[in-house]
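Q: What does the assembly look like in three dimensions?
Context provided by user:
Components: two
Sequences:
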Amino acid sequence: MDRNLSQLEDIFHPRSISIIGASTREGSFGRMFLQGLIRMGFPKVYPVHPRDKEMLGLPAYQNIKDIPYDVDLAVLMTSPRDTLNIVKDCAEKGMKGIIIFTAGFGEKGADGKEIEQEIASTARQQGIRVIGPNSLGIYCPSSKLTTLAQGLMHDITDESGVVGAFSHSGSFVDYLTYILTRKGIRFSKAVSCGNECDLSAVDFLEYFGQDKETKILISYLEGIKQGKKFFDLAREISKEKPIIIWKGGMTEPGAKAALSHTGSLAGSKQIWEAMFKQAGIISVSSFEEIVDCLYVFYSLPLPRGKRIAVVSAMGGTNVGTTDNCIEAGLEMAKLSNLTIEELTKLLPPVGTSIGNPADISVATLVAPDLYGETLKILDRDENVDMLLAITDPGRACTQSIADAAKTINKPLAVTLFALPELESAEYEFLAQQNIPVLPDAKRAVFALSKIAEYARYQKG
Amino acid sequence: MDRNLSQLEDIFHPRSISIIGASTREGSFGRMFLQGLIRMGFPKVYPVHPRDKEMLGLPAYQNIKDIPYDVDLAVLMTSPRDTLNIVKDCAEKGMKGIIIFTAGFGEKGADGKEIEQEIASTARQQGIRVIGPNSLGIYCPSSKLTTLAQGLMHDITDESGVVGAFSHSGSFVDYLTYILTRKGIRFSKAVSCGNECDLSAVDFLEYFGQDKETKILISYLEGIKQGKKFFDLAREISKEKPIIIWKGGMTEPGAKAALSHTGSLAGSKQIWEAMFKQAGIISVSSFEEIVDCLYVFYSLPLPRGKRIAVVSAMGGTNVGTTDNCIEAGLEMAKLSNLTIEELTKLLPPVGTSIGNPADISVATLVAPDLYGETLKILDRDENVDMLLAITDPGRACTQSIADAAKTINKPLAVTLFALPELESAEYEFLAQQNIPVLPDAKRAVFALSKIAEYARYQKG
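A: Here is the predicted structure of the complete assembly.
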């Protein structure tokens, strides 16, 4: 691991943290950070405050230089005009990293950008790396550390997982980690890149590419600095790890909004899309799409091809979903004669439709096992690369699918027709069996088309 | 109301129903229908069974002709080969309508189509109208009547509302009514058209167009019989009532699937899309899209134009959502100078972005009222036609939005970042204030673009 990467390792795994701008005032960010780190159980927290000697039970210090211990990481939430001086203090103290939460720099104009440059060069001269300004910081469960707002305010797991997230939007990565950890997804690390006066998306991309813990990368991005390096790295990393990106600022008004958000300019959509495709990046355009794709990539093996088989008891949904498959670039698998024979034996002659899509009819109301049995037959068909089952969330049907899934080798996604009172229980039940559940068949098809596309890229 | 329509009135409001093929066997459809009608409280139910004299507490009859009372509607679930004879019996009995649940006719080939024709002509000669075969029947809350499977198996409300639904897929209309009634939407009537040997989608379109109770039409369709009549009717009805249609079989494989589903052929996508557009029909392509659009049309007034203002505390989501707006054909409203002044006074100077989208920043964590105040300012701006607020589902934020909504005149939709444990409570809270909540901003933008498009059609 080169210097850049070992510096990032240090930032994700600090032994001690100083909160500069800590507060005990109810409703202040300074209190939120302090309280959150204590709640999560991070061991060494040193609040810095101009007057207080003790904060929420911890000794507080007037200045960073007064802290009588080594400090690996500082989180700054003081006013913009004090930031540069505090960075100088941090440098003298010999820290490894600084997260600048404070906003009001580059995104506000040229003056702000100039200060950012000074901050970065001051830090770098002393071998310190900076995340931000305008950053919500990082989440690293294995370090029992989060500086992301939702994680600070509520409980967030310290179990590690395979998803690495980096984002130009702090709230994006904040909500993403908060919501998805509650749904069973586990992260290796997550980072809000902020204005990138020093460390930028390209550094985190490189880090996650090499990080042994991280197997899937997800990201919300606006402008990308060092575009060539970013795409060269992505092209290599994609060969082993999927990279799912929601790129904001694809339209002119979107790019204008990005300018006032992180101060970055964005290029044209056509160029981005072409570059994403060449680099094997999975491109999405909303929070839900990124989550849907993540579920599918998180739970499923890669398909061998793009030939899908669709099963449901709902004839109309089958027809509409077939349209969705074709429009997403998938192919409806042509079932083998053996499959047709086996399905003909299995399914009632009336009300069903033997083929792809397979309509297993309202007979499933009284014979829910038809779901699992049909899926097992389709799984054995050499012409089928992946499976989608659309069902109502009665336990009998989901149980039948979950049982069948134990012997199914091909990627299988499920769409449940969501009844509010059953939804979460059935989703959880299937998620525990590692079956991704997408609430709408069109969304399932979208995510499956993305994993098929990615599998093709990986094959080269 | 002409004869056709008064005949449909009779079918939706029968005074008595005979279930031909009723059963007491656990897990049979015959039992499901019988039990469901009794549970829902439909007053006069006459089961017909070859041997049983009593079924679930009701007197049973060997033949329809043995029933000593007038029977308005028959539901048939006997085998296909008996169907024609039973229809003849029904005709002799002087019924008004027959729902044929039995499948295995037109969708199985030419022979089946021929029997369907015989059934239809036999019935019509006696002035009886037929729904089906291969139909799940109807839901008419004001008659305390449902023959749809989910409604029969579970409780479904008998409160009436403004949504009329007709569908070539029984399961579609079944799930739609079942799920949405649980979420607070109320239906006037819903019908599963089945194979349309007699009554078809065009009849139900015409009926709902004239029905005083129905204000919004939704439909899943495959092939459309009497296409010219359908679109002529739709063009007129759309001027007063929105018609939301999910058309299955838009692609060749989808059309092939439709052929084995309802036996209908479907035309090319380009032709359908063009005809939908000319007729002011709102075209969607999944279950979720139809539900999202329904929520928006159900809850919101029509916008004056397509200029949207977006508000959130999430800068990145704002940027990405701006892209979604542009790509869906909306315009980002250009805020007036007064609005900019008022927002500048209201919002903190740092971390926010004054403009459209308006980024009201993490400051909302400590000052949630910024949501409501910002929305009220944007609502007053003459350049803004509709509003989208994207928020986390903390009650403080949703309360602020709900309070503001009381004085807001323009269409306002909300996207909540869904935390599993808060989701339903906050959705329900906002839904009760008649604020449609869409779980993803891209979906909200899609539905808002459809209501803007429809408003333009209505203006002519």
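Follow-up: Chain B touches chain A through 86 residues (CB under 8 Å).
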